[in-house]
TrEMBL record:
Domain Glucose-6-phosphate dehydrogenase C-terminal residues, every copy: 271-570
Taxonomic lineage from the root: Eukaryota, Viridiplantae, Streptophyta, Embryophyta, Tracheophyta
Domain Glucose-6-phosphate dehydrogenase NAD-binding: 90-268
Protein name stated in the entry: Glucose-6-phosphate 1-dehydrogenase
Keyword hit for NADP: yes
Length: 581
């Protein structure tokens, strides 16, 4: 299959699980929708039947239309009872995440004809609400932002008519049994597949999974659960959560979502590296001096400080979003695009990483600041934040991968709130040119550029204004020999006129199709927590005081000293890079 440029998305092949019983050969159709052109290949897969609680049932074999995309059964035989249907239940339907992200993402998939022909959406929460009240709530956040080829109002009304509501307690088997009854009414005559999205606090994950798996699992199709971060607070609590979930679910049913893995530039990272010969030979310690993963927000906790204080910026951003991107960046070439092959390589990277030490970490907390006549409150000014809190709202860290490819290369992470800009990017700084011909001219002041400092840099800007650009040294036009630093850039908004889909759209579609490539496996989670847990415990036991930095600044000065320890300058603060072209 040939790549068609940096925006190309390779075919994703579904994983086969060797411990499954009973084989079925299926031909899966092309899937055409505007955001995704997913070719699902002919394959042989091993399937295990599930009992009604979702646990494995050895010895039973059936046409589990695991990757049904258009309402047609995909087994060898004729469609089973008129095809299949997918029921999507958003648990925690009245929460902000559901209203702002999940329901709009489902509507966008429907608008783009990416959902199966037969589907139903249910909201489940403790709030008392009618179907019509749910629809009114959802309609407030739906937009036809993609294009106008069909009447927006008509599409919205069609989607809302497929949305229903069930009120119940999260630990109530009776509530989920009533949901099961309503689901069966909508699924009548079709093979039922069910997806549960847990848009709820992590302390009630297990209650919901226990109740739903026992009373609302599909009796013959598949049942899957999408679980939102945080996945625990450290190695111990994460392991306990995993063990508790696996009391009721098989690992294959658990889809741990990190929405950053669904972002366009992150998904394009492996395409950029593995399908362009110019980059792959350079992707090692021989040519790369350091790698920087930078995340910044230009706002504070905005009244959510009480929730944030339980986790802090390291758990909230670095241990999951940035570490997952690092693993994708640094992994070896996988055997195939199969989900398990990719995740195997990510786990190898994580297991090769050193435990993070306190001397390689800088923490900060934003304080109040007045700018332009406007006052911005500090983190400690938030009434929901406990008095005397030392929870970091900023952190920088230096990490290392002890393997042959990356030995000695610092991977610098930086994440913070209430900074001067909103940004998420990967910056790859290459080594100096050995024996550079222009060094003597630069030393004489003729070149206009310090060629030793101005090394090549590859930047992948994840958000906002998605872009890939390469910084090169270039001659300024004219009779003299004056050097300048220039950008070779791919700005997505100029090259690709179509709007980029939200990460939740991609990940929801993958979960419906059974594609696990962008979801986190339990051993990945274990390896990730092993890196960060010791330093998190030390920070909390010693109550390390964070360095204060003004709201809207570039963060603590200590972050620059940390980078300087490894002869590195943060790429996002140089004078020639203000984040725009």
């Amino acid at each position: 299959m040939a790549a068609t440029g940096l925006g190309f998305h390779p075919a994703a092949f579904f994983s086969a699980h060797p411990r499954e019983a009973g084989t079925i050969t299926k031909q899966l159709p092309f899937r055409h929708c505007s955001h995704h052109r997913i070719r699902v290949a002919r394959r042989t897969c091993l399937l295990r039947a599930k009992s009604s609680n979702g646990r494995p049932q050895i010895g039973a074999s059936f046409s589990n239309s695991n990757e049904v995309l258009d309402g047609r059964a995909t087994g060898d035989g004729p469609p089973e009872q008129g095809g299949s249907t997918v029921s999507i239940t958003v648990v925690g339907a009245s929460g902000d995440l559901a209203k702002k992200k999940i329901f709009p993402a489902l509507f966008a998939l429907f608008y783009e004809d990416c959902l199966p022909k037969h589907f139903t959406v249910f909201g489940y929460a403790r709030s008392k609400m009618s179907d019509e009240e749910l629809r009114n709530m959802i309609s407030m956040t739906l937009t036809c932002r993609i294009d106008k080829r069909e009447n927006c109002g008509d599409k919205m009304e069609q989607f809302l008519q497929r949305c229903f509501y069930q009120s119940g307690q999260y630990n109530s088997e009776d509530g989920f049994a009533e949901l099961d009854r309503k689901l069966k009414e909508k699924e009548a005559g079709k093979l039922p597949n069910r997806l549960f999205y847990l848009s709820i606090p992590p302390n009630i994950f297990v209650d919901v999974v226990r109740s739903a798996s026992r009373t609302a699992s599909s009796s013959s199709g598949w049942t899957r659960f999408i679980v939102e971060k945080p996945f625990g607070r450290d190695s111990e609590s994460s392991g306990e959560l995993t063990r508790s979930l696996k009391m009721y679910l098989a690992e294959e049913q658990i889809f741990r979502i990190d929405h950053y893995l669904g972002k366009e530039l992150v998904e394009n990272l492996s395409v950029l590296r593995f399908s362009n010969l110019v980059f792959e030979p350079l992707w090692s310690r021989n040519y790369i001096r350091n790698v920087q993963l930078i995340f910044s927000e230009d706002f504070g906790t905005e009244g959510r400080g009480g929730y944030f204080d339980n986790y802090g910026i390291i758990r909230d951003i670095m241990q999951n979003h940035l570490l997952q991107i690092l693993a994708l960046f640094a992994m070896e070439t996988p055997v195939s695009l199969d989900a398990e092959d990719i995740r195997n390589e990510k786990v190898k990277v994580l297991r090769s990483m050193r435990q993070l030490k306190l001397e390689d970490v800088v923490v900060g907390q934003y304080k109040g600041h007045t700018r332009g006549g406007k006052s911005f409150p500090g983190y400690a000014d938030d009434p929901t934040v406990p008095k005397g809190s030392v929870t970091p709202t900023f952190a920088a860290a230096a990490l290392f991968i002890d393997n042959a490819r990356w030995d000695g290369v610092p991977f610098l992470m930086k994440a913070g709130k209430a900074l001067h800009t909103r940004r998420a990017e990967i910056r790859v700084q290459f080594r100096r040119v050995p024996g550079n011909l222009y060094r003597r001219r630069s030393a004489a002041g003729a070149a206009g550029l310090d060629v030793d400092a101005a090394t090549n840099e590859l930047v992948l800007r994840v958000q906002p204004d998605e872009a890939i650009y390469l910084k090169i040294n270039n001659k300024v036009p004219g009779l003299g020999m004056r050097l300048d630093r220039s950008d070779l850039n791919l700005l997505y908004s100029e090259r690709y006129r179509r709007e980029i889909p939200d990460a939740y759209e991609r990940l929801l579609l993958d979960a419906i199709e059974g594609e696990r490539r962008l979801f986190i496996r339990s051993d990945e989670l274990d390896a990730a927590w092993a890196i960060f847990t010791p330093v998190l415990r030390e920070l909390e036991e010693k109550r390390v005081a964070p360095e204060l930095y003004p709201y809207g600044s570039r963060g603590p000065v200590g972050a620059h000293y940390l980078a300087a320890n490894y002869n590195v300058r943060w790429g996002d603060i140089t004078s020639d890079d203000d984040g725009s072209f």
